[in-house]
Specification:
Aminopeptidase, binds coenzyme A, single chain
Length: about 180
């Protein structure tokens, strides 16, 4: 499958919000309570995306990327400095989602590699992320990429407490090669 991993553009907030709403429903149906999913609409998410894209323009540590298949956004990711100042890792992936029809063909690996490359270029050595504890498919993906599970906590999502666990890569340089190995 041909696809391009590229930086998201400032004017793509609505398309990103729409893709995220679809990807959330595909990923979390049965994993998160229905009211949480119902509140994740493109209309609600577009404001958050405008914020992410503005931060990307002014803070060079921040990066939003998309997987582009024939001019359609089929996946996206975001990374930057950790949201929590107590984090034990230097950089954080805050999102990585593929539309269901495009999973399992290597695009997720390429997106993780691209984000790791960006963080390495920003002078960071390690990376972490938080994943819903019961999202076993995503956890298997992170383990396939060499992430180590280190501890859990609860996060509030749309007012609901959800158990999440951390995955950490101590050697970002190694993960940064994941983006090119399979191309
Ligand atoms: C998790 C996700 C990003 C992975 O992306 P992907 O494009 O499907 O994964 P890839 O095809 O790049 O797979 C990369 C590696 O992970 C492994 N992998 C992927 N999904 C896996 C699974 N469910 N079980 C076991 N291994 C898995 C693959 O076998 C592959 O290893 P290989 O290259 O050695 O064969 C994608 O499936 C997705 O968006 N899922 C729904 C959203 C989600 O849960 N996001 C994470 C939120 S924290």
């Amino acid at each position: 499958m041909t696809y391009l991993i590229r930086r998201a553009e400032a004017e793509e907030a609505f398309e990103l919000a729409d893709t995220q709403a679809l990807a959330w429903r595909e990923t979390y149906r049965g994993l998160l309570p229905a009211p949480v999913l119902e509140r994740m609409t493109a209309e609600r998410l577009v404001g958050q995306w405008r914020g992410h894209l503005r931060r990307q323009a002014s803070d060079h540590d921040e990066l939003c990327i998309v997987a582009d298949h024939h001019d359609e956004i089929v996946g996206f990711g975001a990374c930057g400095r950790p949201r929590d100042s107590r984090a034990t890792f230097d950089g954080e992936v805050t999102m990585v989602y593929m539309r269901a029809a495009y999973q399992g063909v290597g695009i997720g690996r390429a997106m993780m590699g691209a984000m790791a490359q960006h963080l390495v270029r920003r002078g960071l050595f390690s990376m972490g992320l938080w994943v819903v504890r019961d999202n076993v498919r995503a956890r298997a993906f992170y383990e396939a990429l060499g992430g180590r599970c280190e501890g859990g906590r609860e996060e509030r999502m749309q007012g609901t407490a959800v158990p999440v666990v951390a995955y950490i890569w101590q050697d970002l340089a190694q993960l940064s090669r994941a983006g090119t190995e399979h191309e």
